[in-house]
Structure prediction request, 797 residues.
Amino acid sequence: MTSTYVPLESTKIATNHQRAWAKSLQQQITSGATYAFVNADTPHELFHHMGLPIVTNQWWSAIIAAKQLSEYYFDYMETLGFHDRLARYSSLPLIAELEGDRERQPWGGLPKPSILCARQSADDHQKIFSLWAEKTGAPLFLFSTPAVPDPHPDWWRMGRSDWETLYGGDRLDLMVDEFKELIAQLEELTGRPFDHEGFASYMEAINEQERIYEDVSEILATAPRSPIRISEQIPNAMIPQWHRGSEWALSHARHFRDELHERVKAGTAVVEEERIRMMWIGAGLWFDTSFYSAFEESHGAVFAWSMYLPFAADGYIREIKGDPLRALAARVSAMNEQLHQPPWINAWMVEQAKKYRIDVALLLIPEHDRFSGHGSLFAKKALEEAGVRVIEVWSDMVDQRQWNREEMTARVSTVLDAVLAEKGV
Amino acid sequence: MAHASSLQSKGAAGTLLDRAFEARDRYEPVAPLPRVGIFGNGFPEILVAAAGGLPVHLSMGRLSSTADIDEVIEPFVDEEGRIFLNRLMNGEFDDVEGIIFARDDAPALIAYQYATEWVRQGRAPKAVPPLFLWNLVHTQTPAVERFNAVQAEKLFGFLERIGLRRPDDETIAEASAAESRRREALKRLEAAGVSGATAMRWRNAGRFMPAAEHADLLNAALADAEKVENKSLRIGLIGSPLASPASYDVFERYGTIVCDWQPWGAVWPRPGNDKTTLADILRAAAADPSCPRVSPTTAFRQALIEAVVNARCELVLCQLAPTDDTFGWEIPALASELESRGIAFVNLGFREPDHETWHARAAALISAKLGA
Prediction:
């Protein structure tokens, strides 16, 4: 049933670029260059625009997990006296730092960052980053995170231009003020002034990049059969996202879109006889990404959707309206919340499932990363009411100790068998 | 004085405080005031009192039966949030004018979001009262001060919408006087030599009655309270919210709880409640070091250690709700800091649903530490 899957050229380009970037960054920072260690939902744009390299906590976490090191570090975490129900995804780099053996870590570890930055979106982020600051002595910049009291469900529509209404003027005022505080710190750190005019152009470039991803999402959603695996969607969306607004990122986004377009035009598909379309809800299963292709041959079932690609457009395109810092606040001030809190998560999942013609959703529920797990059962209920079968995956994105591939494969297969029977296949 | 006629007999005030604690949000205070529900720690109750309402905490109730909303509550949602949401959807809070949720208290934000979404989807009973998110940020910068002032304005608008008056300088000063009397009475409670269990019950009884009534009852109760046997070991209690007298009884087999620094302990009423102006209330509330989200991030641990040291604790007991994802990050540093000061530290770990098992384990851990 499965044709020999040929990876995209774009994927190789993206991963090569990231490898080269990582190597260059490693050389820079080990030679004493400054860098920032930041959470994924912070305004990377400010660091990029100031020319200060960043390492993203969740990206670094995924790298450590992909090196099959998470088990070692989480066992070590417990020996330190941290209990086993604390967050994993956002803490894995901290534990590696506390463990201290840099040779064990990817790249030979990270040196002391010049600044740490997190948003208080999850209650534990400030604790994790505070411990990092205590260990390294690096200053910590924390963004306040008041909640949105009256969240409109269709955030992905309103967020583009009516963001003042969606996120609230008082919240945006606060975030812009805190941006200015961070900018002042970055100016001091880099010895360079913040170029406000250039920042507007930079924000426009990011919007342009994300609009390309909007096209890509449209191609993926409307293609008769899924043309690529999500294990290729993710790097082609996320690696440019870590470098958003750069010439390379824009150029890569275009190349990816064009290659995908050609592939669809040629009728190329992940599986010749695609019978079931699935979505993977939640962060990637970083230690076992081959799971995403596990049902292609047995059931003609393909994972057609993961959040990273469609979120590029829905989560990032923010009309500038002559105020790039405020537009950035609109992008950042509820970035992660949109993926985890009702009504945002349930409404978006249903919209995306319909758009991508999804039959079955696998819903990752990381019970020890509560912020990422909240709202899961609202999403499940909404999807089921929309006619999508939902399989709960109580696991963790980086802790393989909780993952039993055989058992999960059996559970998913049972559901897929039933779906095929219903479809009369 | 409230309850004047009923407090003639010895021990009557203490009995009333115990009854109020036991009844929780079902307690009926002497003065019938419009009831405003509070969910979560960190909201300055004085602002509801200044609006002519009675702030009633809804986070300590018990669950009698589940409602449909239970199916969307994940097992890692805090127990107080689960109980509240089920009770809310069972119509148990029909008698409150509105409910205020403290954003910076973990269970409260989730409770607010799940409740509002259930209502938005049209699945809630019609009787759900108006809900309000108190978005106060726990940091002290000019930007945050401006933001918090806006939140106070939003709160005042909400209070007016639910039929209360807009707090002003005069009503805030009046409410502050009552809160100050309560604070004085609570100071006497701390110094009275009663058991930690009694102090916890009598303090938390005040979450369900006006500050003045609470102060009166405390003063009356303390006048004839019996001091507990002076046990030599001074105990500090920290960790997740705990309001179980049975657990206190187990801990106090080994000494007396003299520093109760868990969220349902002596950190309530939170800072700001005895201030006389809105600006001072907001400033004090924003700097509350007992809020786990306070920034600078070191303030929380520093304040905890300071409280334990000032109370001359010899043993600190840490206990956790099974859903903890925040306090646990503090434990290794706390243990190390306390032990370095010669204060014994016992991490009792997660509380278990079976109280007997949990209490037996806690007792064994404490005994082992003390016997070591």
In short: Chain A has a mean pLDDT of 95. The first strand of chain A starts at residue 36 and ends at 38. Residues 9-422 of chain A form one domain.
